[in-house]
Write a structure and sequence with these properties.
This protein is an alpha/beta fold. It is 47% helix and 15% strand.
């Protein structure tokens, strides 16, 4: 069980809930990082008394340094500061709750420093799956999934030690626009896209849920986490978000993990594995839920899911290209500079225009990410 953590992205939804779990179980928080949220991270720092705090934004770091000047907490800035938190010697586990591909480099830094990873940053494995998994093996560290779907699969696989697997079944809420046609989605607003039916999440991941890009990224992540190809991963729409995912075995038995829509359950399991301790999440009452429904995803309307599966099958840099294009397209949508349906169109064009590459180094991934964003954002 984890005793001491560095929490990367402490002011986001996952970060805040991780601190709930840490407080409940007496897990020491030695390092915190954020981008610009000075007020919230100051409150967190005063409550949890980490040894160090790092802000990606330089101006925010300067403000935080002044705010915490009456404490002995060290304040760092920039990518070097995030790296220092990821490698902090007192931490045995790094919780990576950074949003987007920005989480890749800190994950690798933490792995090379011998830290186990509680991974909420799916883009780490989407963009750099082969590099990250190879590094984890080389340095003898574990990667524990925090995403509710991957945590569910991880738990289901325990009953067979990962053997005899016929398929993984990722469940999806369907997001804000389940059942809508492309015609109905032509003029949807940012506000409408941000109204998720079940989960309280950050803006970027909520938009990804609405386009079903999030589920596409999760298919790629599951492939790397559990060593299975695209054809052995199914996606099933489950609007209630009670069954978080399932595994079908060779004898056609299906094992599912159920729970309330509370991320503190998978966060806690990643930190306390293999122990199961009392949780701050509420108890599941199936009689109150009454009904669980399932349907197949609409790959034509929500094309991002199909594009991600194509990128996974092509391999190499294709998943990184799809991810970078999506991050840039979502940024444009949130800024009101493009429409909802154009997110999928921009991602699809980036993947189809890419000519492939035989090389797959960290530098290749960073360069491909940069070039893809540039093409979309200019």
């Amino acid at each position: 069980m984890t005793k001491n953590i560095s929490l990367l992205g402490s002011t986001g939804s996952i970060g805040v809930q991780t601190l709930d779990v840490a407080e409940m179980h007496g897990i020491r928080v030695s390092a915190l990082t954020a981008n610009k949220s000075v007020k919230l991270i100051e409150e967190q720092a005063r409550k949890f008394r980490p040894d160090m705090v790092a802000m990606l934004d330089r101006e925010a770091a300067l403000k935080l340094k002044i705010a915490l000047s009456d404490t002995d907490i060290s304040v760092y800035e920039g990518e070097a500061g995030i790296k220092a938190a990821a490698e902090y010697e007192k931490s045995d586990t790094v919780v990576n709750a950074i949003v987007g591909v920005a989480g890749l480099l800190p994950t690798l830094s933490a792995i090379k420093a011998g830290k186990n990873i509680a991974l909420a940053n799916k883009e780490t494995l989407v963009a750099g799956g082969s590099i990250v998994t190879a590094a984890a093996k080389q340095y003898g560290v574990k990667i524990y999934p925090v995403d509710s779907e991957h945590s569910a699969i991880f738990q289901c696989l325990e009953c067979s030690q990962g053997r005899f697997v016929k398929k993984l079944i990722l469940t999806a809420s369907g997001g804000s626009f389940f059942g809508k046609t492309r015609k109905e989605l032509e003029n949807v607003t940012v506000e409408q896209a941000l109204k998720h039916p079940n989960w309280s999440m950050g803006k970027k991941i909520t938009i990804d849920s609405a386009t079903m890009m999030n589920k596409g990224l999760e298919v790629i992540e599951a492939s790397w986490l559990f060593g299975v190809p695209d054809e052995k991963i199914d996606v099933l729409i489950h609007r209630q978000s009670i069954i978080h995912s399932m595994v079908q075995f060779d004898d056609n038995a299906v094992i599912a993990q159920l729970g309330t829509a509370d991320m503190r359950i998978p966060i806690q399991y990643a930190l306390t594995y293999p122990e199961r301790l009392p949780s701050p999440a509420s108890e599941l009452d199936l009689a109150e839920i009454a009904e669980l429904t399932f349907s197949k995803p609409d790959y034509d309307t929500f094309e991002c899911l199909a594009i991600c599966r194509e990128a996974l099958r092509k391999g190499g840099l294709y998943p990184a290209i799809a991810n970078a294009a999506n991050e840039a397209a979502v940024q444009l949508f949130l800024e009101g500079k493009t429409g909802f349906l154009q997110i999928g169109e921009l991602v699809g064009k980036a993947v189809s225009d890419f000519k492939g590459s035989d090389s797959l180094t960290l530098d290749d991934i960073i360069q491909a990410d940069k070039e893809t964003r540039k093409k979309i954002l200019v």
